[in-house]
Design brief:
alpha/beta; UDP-N-acetylmuramoyl-L-alanine:D-glutamate ligase
Length: 281
């Protein structure tokens, strides 16, 4: 008789789990691709539910071509992920949504379980107050996803939209972070980046009690593709591993700064952040 082993012969690893709900960006600099690479670099096991597919158009000045994923397909992805890791998955990052239908689908799925951390990268697409798809999408994000967020990472434009302020100085950015916290209840990492004048790229963290300016010398004067996605993903990975929100923000700032320092250039008019920057520094 052959005796079967009484223990599992395989080692089971239990890393921190992190989900990104975001769009695909084919060139790898941003979107779900950047999120998954960031999770891996920071030691979290990443999974993704795709909301849309974005492809730059080299024949049209590298503008975006946007294809939404069917809401049922989004719901099926989230159903599979949440069922597979039921009771274990407690941290998610929300990126590009692109439509009110997508936002509604994602919000419905999020409400089916408890989350320790919901990190919202509030991708706002409406540049004015004109009626139409862009404005409807932004309004849906503010109404359905912002209230679910525990942490949000608006860039300069998004900070202006969420706070209702014009941001021209570090003082303005601090006030905006406070206003966004007041309306959302979330910890806020408002990004000034290269948009504010001065030698440093500054971001402001505020959680209702602690206000801290995160600062690093600017590396060039132009925004880098994937910096915003990677910052939010780095916060997500650190929170999943058990970091406090402020510590997660500090680590994410360091991660993105090194990724910008070692950015990747292609034929687009903008470089892409290298998620392996900390590993190579």
């Amino acid at each position: 008789m052959v005796r079967m082993p009484t223990t599992d012969p395989y080692d089971v690893h239990s890393p921190a789990l992190a989900l990104t709900i975001a769009g695909s960006e084919a060139t790898g600099g941003a979107g779900a691709q950047a999120d998954l690479k960031t999770f891996q670099e920071l030691g979290a096991f990443g999974m993704v539910a795709l909301t849309c597919i974005v492809a730059f158009d080299p024949q049209d000045d590298w503008n975006h071509r946007f294809v939404p994923v069917d809401p049922d397909v989004i719901a099926h992805q989230l159903e599979a992920i949440q069922a597979d890791y039921a009771g274990q998955l407690k941290t998610t990052k929300l990126g590009m949504m692109g439509s009110p239908a997508t936002i509604s689908t994602v919000a419905t799925a999020l409400r089916t379980q408890d989350w320790d951390h919901v990190v919202l990268d509030p991708v706002l697409i409406c540049k004015g107050q004109e009626p139409g798809h862009a404005l409807d999408t932004d309004q849906a994000l503010k109404a359905e996803l912002l209230p679910l967020a525990t942490f949000t990472t608006p860039n300069h434009f998004e900070s202006e939209q969420l706070s209702g302020m014009t941001i021209e100085s570090l003082g303005d950015l601090k006030d905006a972070a406070k206003r966004i916290h007041e309306v959302s209840g979330a910890a806020v990492l408002a990004k000034g980046g290269v948009r504010l004048s001065g030698p440093d790229a500054v971001d402001v963290y505020y959680d209702g009690e602690t206000l801290e300016v995160l600062s690093a010398p600017k590396i060039g004067e132009h925004a880098v593709s994937g910096a915003g996605c990677s910052l939010a993903a780095a916060v997500t990975a650190e929170l999943a591993k058990g970091a406090a929100p402020l510590d997660a923000a500090r680590r994410a700032k360091e991660f993105v700064t090194e990724g910008i320092r070692q950015r990747v250039a292609g034929n687009t008019p903008f470089a892409a952040l290298w998620q392996g920057g900390l590993r190579q520094s």
